[in-house]
Design a protein that fits this description.
The chain is built from 17 helices and 10 strands. With about 450 residues, the chain is of the alpha/beta class. Helix 2 runs antiparallel to helix 3 and helix 6 packs parallel to helix 7. It starts with a helix and ends with a helix.
Length: about 450
C-alpha cells in the first residue's frame, strides 16, 4: 500500500525506474500519421509481441496478455475516434451495465419519477440482468475493457445477483464501480465487500430526512446510514479497504445548506470521500427542484483510499478467465474485415467509440440517455448468442451522421439530436488513468498515463 501511494505521487522516471512509456511512445509514433484502420491494425499487431514481452517482465502470462489487449484496444479506439470511423475494429473499453431496470425510489428527472411513470414518458421495461447474459457480453468485450460501471437508471442492489455479476467482471481484470441510493432493506454488506467491487457511489442528497426526501423520494435516510455502517463494519471484519465509499451529494437549492453537516456525517460514518456534484436540471419534471450555484468538489476523508484500488486490482488471480483473454490476445486485428472510409473531422459523440450501455433486459444503448417511446435510442438487443453489437446498423448510422457521411433526415438516430455533453463518458480518461495506476503505478508512470488517456 505504501508503495502504491509513493508511486502515485512520485514518477518512476525521477529515480531511474523502468516504465511503459518508451514502448507506448514507439507505438504512438508509428500510428501518428496512420489514416486507415487496416494499416493501424497492422501496426498494433506488429507491436503486440514487444509490448507483451515488456509486460511479461512484471506480470504473469494471463495478466500480461490482458494488459496487452486492453492497451492496443485503446490505441485502436483512439484511431477510430480521431478519423470518425463508421465501422470500428476496436471494442468498447467501458461497459455500463444495469443489473436492474427497477428502482424503489421516484427521484425527479429519472425514468422512475412519479410523473414519468404515470405518463409513460420513457420506454423502460422492468427486469433484472441474468448472470448468463452478462457472461455472454463479457466473453465478447471483457478482455478489451478496462472498466464496468454497474448502474444506469435502475437500483443495482435490487438484483440479489449483483455481487456475482461484479465478481464475474473482475475475472477479466476490469475495474468495477457501482452507484446506489443504498436505501434498500435486503442488503448483504459482506457479499459486496467480497465481490471485488472497487468503488461504490452512494447518492445521499441531504443530512436530515425532510431535506433528503425532497429529491430522493420514498428514500429512508436512516436505512441508508444503517447500510453504510454495515459496509464499513464488513470491510473492517474482512480486512478489506474496498469498495471505496463515495458519498455523492447533488447540490440543489433546497439542500445546499446541509452540505457541511453532510460532510461531517460522512467522516463520522467512515465514508472514504465526500463529493459535491452539480446535478442535471430536472425542472422539466419538477419545477420546484432547482440546481444550486455551488461549485463541485471532492473531499478525501481517507488518504489511504488512493491505494485501495491497487490492492484490489486483481483480487482473484486464480479465477482470471485466461481462456477468453488468450483467445483475444491471439485474435489478429489485421485479419478482421474493416469497412474503411476516408478520415473525417468535426464534432462527434465520444460514447459511440468508447463505451457501450446494456440495460437489464439486454437492450443496447449508445449512452446513459433514457429511451422514450418516440425515439430510436435502442441500438441493438443482446442475448447469449449476439454478435458484435458495437457495429450494429444504428451504431454505424449514428457515427456516419456525425462524420458527415450521412445526410440529415427525419430518421436520423436520436442521439444525433442530443444536447448533453457528448465528450464525457462514464468510463473515460479518469478511469483509464486510475486503472493502469492501480495495475502498476511505477511502470505506468505519468507520461504513460497521459498517452493512454488524453484523447
Amino acid at each position: 500500500m505504501l508503495s502504491a501511494l509513493f508511486h502515485h505521487f512520485i514518477p518512476a522516471s525521477l529515480y531511474g525506474g523502468q516504465t511503459a512509456f518508451p514502448t507506448l511512445a514507439g507505438i504512438d509514433r508509428e500510428l501518428e500519421h496512420c489514416q486507415s484502420a487496416d494499416s493501424t491494425a497492422s501496426i498494433l499487431e506488429r507491436s503486440k509481441a514487444d509490448l507483451y514481452a515488456r509486460l511479461r517482465e512484471r506480470f504473469t502470462p494471463p495478466v500480461a496478455q490482458a494488459l496487452t489487449v486492453k492497451i492496443l484496444n485503446l490505441f485502436l479506439a483512439r484511431h477510430h475516434l480521431h478519423t470518425r470511423s463508421v465501422s470500428v475494429l476496436s471494442r468498447p473499453f467501458g461497459l455500463v451495465i444495469d443489473p436492474s431496470n427497477m428502482c424503489q425510489l421516484a427521484c425527479p428527472g429519472c425514468v422512475h419519477s412519479t410523473r414519468n411513470e404515470a405518463l409513460k414518458v420513457f420506454d423502460w421495461p422492468k427486469g433484472t440482468l441474468s448472470e448468463a447474459r452478462l457472461s455472454a457480453l463479457l466473453k465478447l468485450y471483457g478482455p478489451y475493457a478496462i472498466g464496468a460501471y454497474f448502474c444506469d437508471y435502475g437500483e443495482p442492489l435490487l438484483n440479489l445477483q449483483t455481487p456475482k455479476l461484479i465478481r464475474l467482471a473482475k475475472t477479466y481484470l476490469m475495474g468495477t464501480a457501482l452507484s446506489t441510493s443504498l436505501s434498500v432493506r435486503r442488503f448483504d454488506a459482506d457479499a459486496y465487500v467480497e465481490s471485488g467491487l472497487d468503488f461504490m457511489v452512494i447518492s445521499i442528497d441531504g443530512a436530515t430526512q425532510p431535506v433528503y426526501e425532497r429529491f430522493r423520494r420514498k428514500g429512508d435516510l436512516e436505512l441508508v446510514f444503517s447500510n453504510i455502517r454495515e459496509l464499513v463494519d464488513a470491510k473492517r471484519r474482512l480486512r478489506k479497504r474496498t469498495p471505496v465509499l463515495s458519498w455523492n451529494f447533488l447540490a440543489f437549492e433546497h439542500n445546499a445548506h446541509e452540505i457541511s453537516l453532510a460532510a461531517r456525517m460522512a467522516r463520522k460514518l467512515g465514508v472514504n470521500q465526500f463529493r459535491i456534484v452539480n446535478p442535471f436540471d430536472v425542472r422539466w419534471d419538477d419545477p420546484e427542484i432547482r440546481p444550486a450555484p455551488v461549485e463541485g468538489a471532492v473531499r478525501r476523508l481517507d488518504s489511504l483510499s488512493i491505494a485501495s484500488e491497487a490492492d484490489n486490482w486483481n483480487p482473484f488471480p486464480e479465477s482470471v478467465d485466461g481462456g477468453a483473454i488468450t483467445r483475444a490476445f491471439e485474435d489478429l486485428w489485421n485479419e478482421q474485415a474493416a469497412s474503411d472510409s476516408p478520415p473525417s473531422f468535426g464534432h462527434t459523440c465520444h460514447w459511440l467509440y468508447k463505451n457501450i450501455v446494456m440495460d437489464a433486459t439486454g437492450r443496447i444503448l449508445p449512452c446513459c440517455g433514457g429511451p422514450r417511446p418516440d425515439t430510436n435510442l435502442v441500438f441493438a438487443r443482446f442475448d447469449d448468442n449476439a454478435s458484435d453489437v458495437f457495429n450494429s446498423e444504428r451504431y454505424r448510422r449514428a457515427r456516419a451522421w456525425f462524420s458527415g457521411r450521412a445526410a440529415a433526415s427525419d430518421d436520423a438516430p436520436y442521439c444525433t439530436q442530443c444536447e448533453w455533453d457528448q465528450t464525457t463518458v462514464n468510463v473515460g480518461s479518469q478511469e483509464i488513468r486510475r486503472y493502469f495506476r492501480a495495475a502498476d503505478a511505477a511502470f505506468f508512470d505519468r507520461q504513460s498515463l497521459r498517452l493512454l488517456s488524453d484523447w
